[in-house]
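Board notes, transcribed. Complex of a protein with D-mannose.
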Amino acid sequence: MREAWRWFGSNDPVSINDIRQTGATDIVSALHAIPTGEVWPLADIQAHKALVEKDNTENSSLVWSVVESIPVHEDIKLGRDNCQPYIDAWIGSMENLAKCGIKTICYNFMPVIDWTRTDLKYQLPNGGYALRFDQDKFAAFDLFILQREHAEADYSADELAKAKAVFSTMTEDDKALLTKNIIAGLPGKMTDAYNISDFRAALSQYQNISKDILRKNLFNFLSQILPKAEQLGMKLAIHPDDPPRDMFGLPRIICTAEDLEILFAAQPNPANGITLCAGTYGSRPDNDLPQMAKDFGARIHFAHLRGVTRDKDEQRSFYEAEHLESDVDMVGVIAALLKEEKSRKGAGEIFIRPDHGHQILDDINKKGNPGYSCIGRLKGLAEIRGVIKALKAVG
Ligand code: DNO
């Protein structure tokens, strides 16, 4: 198991030397400034890698091992005739990364939106803050702020009433904040930031794209990139749709164990793998995380370890809980990953990272990337490290 840490680059308030102190050995990063659909130039990858490795001679080593993510151009997801140059560019980026020895790539295939939360400062009973997704607030946004065409058809009478009640209590500031949280972006998202009218336009492009069509477009993309990835010794790790279900009438196809079975039946190439994002899959009660870690063990190239606690009455709402105290059986997940790794006999370590952390202590008054606080993630990593050590010790 290799302990990794996500670094957003020179602007990240958590510096490489800070990361060194967490005990992580590997960096997860990306070239966020390169526009979607363009090749990542070799020189830019080398320069970014040099930033990571700059102080390695005097200090403990850090190495850029995982890319999260190379964005996938919307035209590929839409299966447009003009998408070939974007697929070729993705392959070009992969080739340049391989030249630098970076062999694990996380990516996702979520149309229009990337990961989505409604609250970025949800107060916990201990005074810290977490990220939260609230289904009623989300519905209030969809129905009454975005006013998406035919949105009512996606909600029951009860859901409509709840969304209405939530909306009626919202101030203009609340509405602006919710809008910003949902469509203008969270750190590391791989889609564009929008204003409301661009967002409506982006959604409407998917009107005739069913789940089957989106799958066909993913498989077309994969059938071109996987043979190359295999040849280069790259591991591709698709990230699930977060939250894992259809939203805004958009099809989402990487949400459940069944979705993964469909993926691997269609594209069995061993380079085809997953990011086991425990928090994302775990935000559905029908995903059994330790079981998924066992069933898809050989396909797991990367794991995001965090948990969520779902609301009792509304299982689609959740907050990001303590790493070891949530609805996700984290110890069970780690045990399954360790077992899988053992079975690989040294050929294929699994990269893990503490995915998100609470905003606590000194970080409460610091500016940072939501979910990517230093202290909260450090706490998560330390807890996960303890579980790994303990499980390894007992065998
Ligand atoms: C959120 C992350 C996402 C993820 C991308 C993967 O914290 O898990 O930003 O990096 O969706 O492509």
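The mean pLDDT is 96. The pocket of D-mannose is lined by residues 68-69, 106-108, 114-115, 188-190, 239, 277, 304, 356, 371 (CB under 6 Å).
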